[in-house]
UniProtKB/TrEMBL annotation:
The keyword ATP-binding applies. Keywords: ATP-binding, Nucleotide-binding, Repeat. This is ATP-binding cassette domain-containing protein. Residues 529-561 are annotated as: Disordered. SUPFAM superfamilies: P-loop containing nucleoside triphosphate hydrolases. One of its GO terms (molecular function) is ATP binding. Gene3D superfamilies: P-loop containing nucleotide triphosphate hydrolases (3.40.50.300).
Length: 637
């Protein structure tokens, strides 16, 4: 178990968190959430030993095997397959030593290494590395290519594969889905379900958190608060906590009324399609969860768009691709006022290419494209950020678009994207990727489009900004077509799903749950692609009788079982105490508790806090002792 005890950390003149306490239990899967810049990555750096706390300690890291995902991978001549394989450093070293011994005809050294490889299942390492690459969207032939031949986004995927390859007790993943498509995101989600170590995950993808994590640690107001369950559970618990802390929630009531009114209006028009019904449920739930995001700095709307003539955009018999090589053939598609469409398909199937052709950026290889009079398209992709003038301010960008607009009107609009006061006047160069993406969205919204074409709009956006974007899209009366790996965004904004598969575009008759099931049922395809060569080494394994070993292992497990049960009981009690402490600390954060008439209650709370902390320390000490005994027994066995 890893224990964060009274941690305080300051970067420059900013306090990130103070007296933070939390426990990471073995095998627990935790999402670390909070606004951009609150200290999530700094906490990762502390766990990795790259950053020291100003105060407090992290206990239990000694002896832990920690794997983490690098954010930058240099473009070297190392092959992609070897780069991933080296994630399992001990096995990679053995395989390298084996090649050297065989090249030198050192048969004695080679025999010794073969024994070591068999003991650690090292012969399967190359196959595991290839399976990870296939699962993350690579082809068989990519294993032989150099790192330098891949783009930055694909090198980040290789960094993820390398982290997953490493045998670990603690796995740290920082935004692992940012460069993944939906299909690959679902594969990763399934992989993490089977991971046996402790997972600490930074992600702004709420559906991914719900599917992968059983707890949330949320950084807010320099505190670290723990919640049980996924992100949806966190929203409910935080909403209750905030509701208890506020006697009045006028903003909540107004916001919920607006969303409920939208739900009523939408319900009258909804079709019986499964995706439309899923969206209705999502909209209703959003109203219930509004309070959990009441303190969000983001609140904006797309200006009311002019209505164009239907169909706004239409393609017939379209071949889409590059250099006379179509990715999609014979596509028929039309977009009308009010349409809300999500585009699905594997990485490389042609989703982005189709969007670029749809908005007229890329000419069709064959077929026809028409856009109606009055069609005003806003196209967002990650390259939008690259078009920003980094030496100018957010305000100046809008002023260049509409020189006659009142400055206060522009400032009010930018304020909804959290560019307030001096922030609206600051030059963009030092802004984070998320801030630049927010501004790119603001610029598109300001131009009053009636067609929004969005390609992965949520990359680099935190959860509060994603929610604000969802609500803005719900209220947008124009047409929307979106590609995203964020399933929550797709559920709340799309009425119809289109899928690109095997070079064809077609309506998908189902909802996102059905699509996820389709992807998971096809997950064995990647294994079928593994070439026979990768299996060859495994055939060198000895076929000796394992019955005696299995019998000995069973006896050892029986001896360990009482210790393991005692440890589980301690972990369950520690979790209960931690939850009770969180409730006490929430009550102590109430200003009213320090008024004279609440003196008795304050005394009781402080007494209970002290007693709970003392019990927690005793339980943690007992847990560490039992764990050491178990580890010693494992080493002897």
């Amino acid at each position: 178990m890893i224990i964060l005890r009274d941690l305080s950390l300051r970067r420059a003149d900013r306090l990130l968190f103070e007296e933070a306490n939390a426990s990471l239990l073995p095998g627990q899967k935790i999402a670390l959430t909070g606004a951009n810049g609150c200290g999530k990555s700094s906490l990762f750096a502390m766990l990795l030993g790259e950053l020291q706390a100003d105060k407090g300690d992290i206990e239990g890291l000694k002896g832990q095997r920690i794997a983490h995902m690098a954010q930058d991978v240099a473009a070297t001549d190392v092959s992609a397959g070897n780069f991933v394989l080296e994630g399992d450093a001990p096995v990679a070293k053995l395989l390298g030593g084996l090649k050297l011994a065989e090249a030198n005809d050192d048969f004695e050294a080679a025999a010794k290494i073969h024994t070591q490889l068999e003991a650690c299942d090292g012969y399967a390492a190359e196959r595991r590395a290839l399976q990870l690459m296939l699962g993350l969207g690579f082809e068989d032939s990519d294993a032989e290519k150099s790192l330098g031949s891949f783009s930055g986004g694909w090198r980040v995927r290789l960094a993820l594969a390398r982290a997953l390859m490493m045998p670990s007790d603690l796995l740290l993943l920082d935004e692992p889905t940012n460069h993944l498509d939906l299909d690959t995101t679902i594969w990763l989600q399934n992989f993490l379900k089977a991971y046996r170590g402790t997972l600490l995950l930074i992600s702004h993808d709420r559906d991914f958190i719900d599917a992968s994590c059983s707890a949330v640690m949320h950084i807010e107001q320099e505190r670290l608060n723990s919640y049980k369950g996924g992100y949806s559970d966190f929203e409910r618990q935080r909403a209750l906590r905030l509701e208890e802390q506020r006697a009045s929630a006028e903003k909540h009531a107004r916001r919920r009324a607006e969303i409920e009114d939208f739900v009523r209006r939408f319900r009258a028009k909804a079709t019986k399609a499964k995706q439309a019904q899923s969206r209705l449920k999502e909209l209703a739930r959003m109203g219930e969860m509004a309070l959990a995001h009441e303190d969000s700095p983001f609140e904006f709307r797309f200006p009311e768009p002019p209505r164009g003539r239907d169909p706004l955009i239409e393609v017939r018999g379209a071949n889409v691709g590059y250099d006379n090589s179509p990715l999609i053939s014979g596509a028929d598609f039309s977009l009308r006022n009010g349409d809300r469409i999500a585009l699905l398909g594997r990485n490389g199937s042609g989703k982005t290419t189709f969007l670029r052709s749809l908005c007229g950026e890329l000419p069709l290889l064959a077929g026809e494209r028409h856009s109606s009079e009055g069609c005003r398209i806003a196209y967002f992709d990650q390259q939008q950020v690259d078009t920003l003038d980094l030496d100018s301010s957010a305000l100046l960008h809008l002023q260049r678009l509409t020189p006659d607009a009142r400055e206060q009107t522009l400032r009010d609009f930018l304020g909804g994207f959290d560019f307030k006061g001096k922030r609206a006047d600051a030059e963009l160069r030092p802004f984070s990727g998320g801030e630049k993406a927010r501004l790119a969205l603001a610029i598109l919204a300001w131009q009053r489009p009636n067609v929004l074409i969005l390609d992965e709009p949520t990359n680099h956006l935190d959860l509060d900004m994603r929610r604000a974007l969802e609500i803005a899209l719900l209220e947008f009366t124009g047409a929307v077509i979106v590609v995203s790996h964020d399933r929550h965004l797709l559920r709340s904004t799309a009425d119809n799903l289109y899928r690109i598969a095997e070079g064809h575009l077609s309506l998908f008759n189902g909802d996102l749950d059905a699509y996820e099931g389709l992807i998971l049922r096809g997950s064995d395809d990647a294994q079928d692609k593994v070439p026979a060569k990768a299996e060859g080494a495994g055939k060198q394994r000895s076929t000796v009788d394992r019955r005696d070993q299995r019998r000995a292992a069973a006896e050892t497990r029986a001896q360990r079982r009482p210790l393991e049960q005692a440890i589980k009981k301690l972990e369950k009690r520690m979790e209960t105490i931690q939850e009770q402490l969180s409730a006490i600390e929430a009550a102590l954060a109430e200003p009213s508790i320090y008024e004279l008439e609440a003196k008795t209650k304050l005394t009781d709370l402080l007494r209970d806090q002290g007693a709970h902390r003392a019990e927690l320390e005793e339980l943690e000490s007992d847990w560490l002792s039992q764990q050491e005994s178990l580890e010693a027994m494992i080493e002897q066995g």
